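Appendix B. Raw example, untouched.
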Amino acid sequence: MTVVGPFGLSVRDQALEADVQTGLAAVEAGLLDATKSEVPFITEAAQHLVRAGGKRFRPLLVMLASQFGDPYAPGVVPSAVVVELTHLATLYHDDVMDVAEVRRGVASANARWGNSVAVLTGDFLFARASHILADLGPEAVRVQAEAFERLVTGQILETAGPRDGRDPVDHYLDVIGGKTGSLIAVSGRFGAMMSGADDSVVDILTQYGERLGVAFQLADDVLDIASDSHESGKTPGTDLREGIPTLPVLLLRAQAEAHGRQDDLELVELLDGDLTDDARHARALRLLRAHPALEQARRDTVHYAEAARATLTPLPECYAKSALVELCDAVVHRAG
């Protein structure tokens, strides 16, 4: 039993372990190659987050999904590079929008070089992803284009906020379905599709990725409140400090509105105040960690992870399926 990939995923078969490790190494090399430019400064900026590391969750899912066809098919590794490049590009843009100073334990690109360079570097990564995608065929281009549209739509919905009368929690789930679920769904889809798996398998792994992606983001939401050291390299309560809506906060607001309990209303008032003040921020974190809304967010994370696991039921029993099931468990484990 060997630990590979994010969260210490255990692979219980030597052949599968070798395939996954070889595939991820090839993806890493592909990322470095795709982020090279004739302009040294562009190379430095484009490789900034590549070299900072990361979970490589999406490429791992591509590798596991490819096991249901031919994992050595020529399109598997390039498609994994495409999804990771797309993900990295969105991080550059997100950090500008969120005015983030740290990403993956290093200074964010916008903090280091300014917003303009960060935005343009993200665009550069999108361009390189599109260049690779063009060699994978028109169907791959269409799949990626649809996912990218959903991703951008999710970002716009987050920025615009829920329309009048819309449940903020339902709105938020739509947001993360687009921002996070869409690209993780494509990871499962590309792995199966590029390996030549049956259409039914492609559909199953696409649905699995969508649901796992939502669980993945909800686990991040819980971690932002509950953890002492955030896996993403951000300090605990970063989203809270920056006023970014997350599920525990939205659930707290819903409970405060529905029941009007004084403690809930006071906590909402605290969250609406200046959380750049360290003392107020620490108090808000402490109260949220003890609030039932955090446990409800954990239950919702489990719900989506279990839905992802259930999606896998029709697939044949094999080590790759077991690893995908374990990914569901690993996501839940992150949320406590």
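End of appendix B.
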